[in-house]
Amino acid sequence: MKTRKKIAVRAAQYLFLVLMLLTIVVPLYLLVINSFKTMPELLGDYFGLPSNFYLDNFESVLYKANYFLYLLNSFVVTAASAIGVYLLVPVTSFVIARQMDQHKYFKFLYVFLILGIFVPFQTKMLALVKLMSALQMMNSFGLVLLYVTSSLCTDVFLMVGYLRTIPRDVEEAAIIDGCSRIRSIFSIVYPMAMPMISAIIIKDILWFWNDFLLPLIVVGGKLNAWTLPLFQYNFKSTYAVDYPVAYAAYFMSMLPVLAVYFLASRQITDGLTEGAVKS
Asked: Of 255, 210, 269, 264, whose CA–CA distance to 62 is shortest?
């Protein structure tokens, strides 16, 4: 009976994994194949492979819709926001992780940041718009600032939990060997925390690149400051019935972040190996 139960559980697990895989593979398959079709071919056979690889859809995106301008905007906003997260989150998290047991202020700050996770964006959206308008920051710089500050709550929560697993003995041993306090942090603690830092950066990059709501609110009225999600949304209204061109736009917008994800995934694996030495 136990063997049959184990087989049934294992079969259910594999079935669940297959269903989850299909929810990813099938939309991706439809996106790719339909971006290479003409409009009559798409309407005639939505799920079938294209008879010929029709490349005019990509040409329309590249040369008729300022795609490279919006690609550059997305790249600048995403890169600047990721750098801001990298510079701010580990430092803030390290101070909180090391001081929250001794000082109530840091524990209060930690709890205050965690509470921010449970505040829906819709409840603070109007206040953010009024604040950014008053500061005259309804532009790309303001968008980057909002991304960095909005990511603090979740990122600090994850980072503090990881840093508290790194024993203080590692830092103290480095200081005894002649390292300064600052050098022990950046040369010893940070490399050991690289798995979590990498995971946080990748998570945030995927959010920054694909986010639609914040760019719509902050730079929606400035055409030259649009990011790719805004371009994709308005592109459909410009080419209302040309779905193959829209698919081509989605496909091309997805490629850069996929490349970053696969490259950074390897960094996570390397970071896990480096982080395995902590006691």
From this structure: 255
CA dist 134 and 140 (Å) reads 16
**Is residue 224 in a domain?**
yes
Contact 183, 202 (CB under 8 A): no
* Structural domain count, the chain: 1
Please give the single-letter amino acid code of residue 272: L
- Note whether 132 and 138 are within 8 A (CB): yes
Indicate whether 214 belongs to any domain. Answer: yes
86 falls within a domain: yes
For 197, the domain range is 61-275
State residue 235's pLDDT score.
Answer: 66
Q: According to the model, what pLDDT value does residue 198 have?
A: 84
pLDDT along the chain (279 residues), means of 10: 77 89 88 86 83 82 82 93 92 88 86 87 84 89 92 90 82 76 77 84 89 89 86 65 79 81 64 45
Give CA–CA dist 30/53, Å, rounded. 14
pTM of the predicted structure, to 2 decimals = 0.81
CATH of the domain at 133: 1.10.3720.10
